[in-house]
Amino acid sequence: MSAHKYELMFIADPELDERGLKKLTEQYLETVTKEGGDVENIDIWGRRKLAYEIDGKTEGNYVVVNYFADPTTSDELDRLLNLNESVIRTKILRK
């Protein structure tokens, strides 16, 4: 299977500080690198106001990551992110 380029955007709990957010991000990107994928760029936007309330929260920490991986690795990353209570929303787009 060949690797594709993806963009991951996730919104984490606004209570997370910058260090916690960075640790959370690196923890999940390890899934990509362990499976032979490559992380191209990590852009931590930080705390922003949400367009609408999600689970009683009006703000969230935004993170955007560009990476190359197999589709199965991307599916696994999405699955793991959805299991984490600190992650409010997640979206993975194939570029």
Automatic annotation (TrEMBL):
<dbReference type="InterPro" id="IPR020814">
    <property type="entry name" value="Ribosomal_S6_plastid/chlpt"/>
</dbReference>
<keyword id="KW-0694">RNA-binding</keyword>
<keyword id="KW-0687">Ribonucleoprotein</keyword>
<dbReference type="GO" id="GO:0003735">
    <property type="term" value="F:structural constituent of ribosome"/>
</dbReference>
<keyword id="KW-0699">rRNA-binding</keyword>
<comment type="similarity">
    <text>Belongs to the bacterial ribosomal protein bS6 family.</text>
</comment>
<keyword id="KW-0689">Ribosomal protein</keyword>
<dbReference type="GO" id="GO:0005840">
    <property type="term" value="C:ribosome"/>
</dbReference>
<dbReference type="GO" id="GO:0006412">
    <property type="term" value="P:translation"/>
</dbReference>
<dbReference type="InterPro" id="IPR000529">
    <property type="entry name" value="Ribosomal_bS6"/>
</dbReference>
<dbReference type="GO" id="GO:0005737">
    <property type="term" value="C:cytoplasm"/>
</dbReference>
<dbReference type="GO" id="GO:0070181">
    <property type="term" value="F:small ribosomal subunit rRNA binding"/>
</dbReference>
<protein>
    <recommendedName>
        <fullName>Small ribosomal subunit protein bS6</fullName>
    </recommendedName>
</protein>
<dbReference type="InterPro" id="IPR035980">
    <property type="entry name" value="Ribosomal_bS6_sf"/>
</dbReference>
<dbReference type="InterPro" id="IPR014717">
    <property type="entry name" value="Transl_elong_EF1B/ribsomal_bS6"/>
</dbReference>
<dbReference type="GO" id="GO:1990904">
    <property type="term" value="C:ribonucleoprotein complex"/>
</dbReference>
<comment type="function">
    <text>Binds together with bS18 to 16S ribosomal RNA.</text>
</comment>
<dbReference type="Pfam" id="PF01250">
    <property type="entry name" value="Ribosomal_S6"/>
</dbReference>
